[in-house]
Specification:
Layout lengths: L1 H34 L9 H100 L3 H7 L2 H102 L12
Length: 270
């Protein structure tokens, strides 16, 4: 059984090798005939006719195969062109998004700067109000510590109490101003913190968008490289098809010549 299988394998390999050799030999003969000015030199008309028909069939098969390859390559080119176009649009969109984010960051930084200036001013106002309140409280305390005889010597009791009332009202107003200024400072600080967070998020987004853009750029260059290779392959296939069609036309002309058809009557296979 093993011997039979071995013999079968050897036979199959032999047949396959012979077929390849025969095909290569036919290709060489057909090429030689199509490039020769003498045609089937040294062969009878019948043998020449058989060989020319074989060559014609061979070039038909080759032309069909190359046409299929051309169609496949053209489809691959179209796919690559579509992918490149998509990548270019993505890159353009990312450029626009990065530019927009940068504009927002710049605008927010200006707002943050203005807000910080307002916070600084509010801090100065708070310090000034606190100094005023301290002075008013000191004056009120000094008034409270003034002996009765000194009050009588310096003026009437009504003037004294009027002065105390004025200082207390002034202290209340300055206190209200201090509270409102602190509220403003807290609000401004909250707004600044919010804008700082937004700027931080925008900067992270810009980094991510820039990374995505770089990846798309690299992918686009790779696809364009593949497209160039496919274009070269496509042009080579077109050249091969043109060469085969030329050989086929010459073979067909020889067949018509053997059939006794005048060159002017033979159809063109260009």
């Amino acid at each position: 059984m093993i011997k039979k299988v071995s013999c079968f394998l050897l036979l199959a390999v032999g047949i396959f090798g012979f077929a390849n050799f025969a095909l290569a030999d036919l290709e060489a003969q057909c090429a030689a005939i199509s490039e020769s000015a003498n045609g089937c030199q040294g062969m009878t008309d019948d043998a020449c006719r058989v060989l020319l028909q074989q060559c014609s069939d061979y070039y038909d098969e080759q032309s069909t195969k190359i046409s299929e390859d051309i169609t496949k390559t053209a489809a691959q080119k179209s796919t690559l062109q579509g992918e490149i176009s998509t990548l270019k649009k993505r890159i353009q969109n990312l450029d626009a998004q990065i530019s927009q984010s940068n504009v927002k960051v710049k605008s927010l930084n200006l707002q943050i700067s203005d807000t910080q200036s307002s916070i600084n001013q509010a801090t100065e106002d708070i310090n000034s109000s606190q100094v005023q309140i301290t002075s008013i409280l000191r004056a009120i305390y000094e008034q409270d510590q003034t002996p009765a005889f000194a009050i009588l010597l310096n003026g009437s009791l009504s003037d004294f109490f009027s002065n105390i009332t004025y200082l207390e009202n002034l202290d209340s107003k300055v206190g209200d101003l201090l509270d409102s200024t602190k509220d403003l400072q807290n609000y401004l600080q909250g707004q600044k913190d919010k804008m700082d967070t937004e700027v931080d998020q925008l900067q992270k987004t810009i980094v991510l968008q820039s990374t995505q853009k770089a990846e798309n750029e690299a992918n686009r260059k790779t696809q364009e490289k593949y497209l160039t290779m496919k274009e070269t392959e496509y042009q080579a296939q077109l050249a091969d098809k043109k060469a085969i069609e030329a050989k086929k036309a010459k073979i067909q002309a020889m067949l018509f010549s053997l059939a006794g058809t005048d060159d002017t009557d033979a159809p063109s296979f260009g």
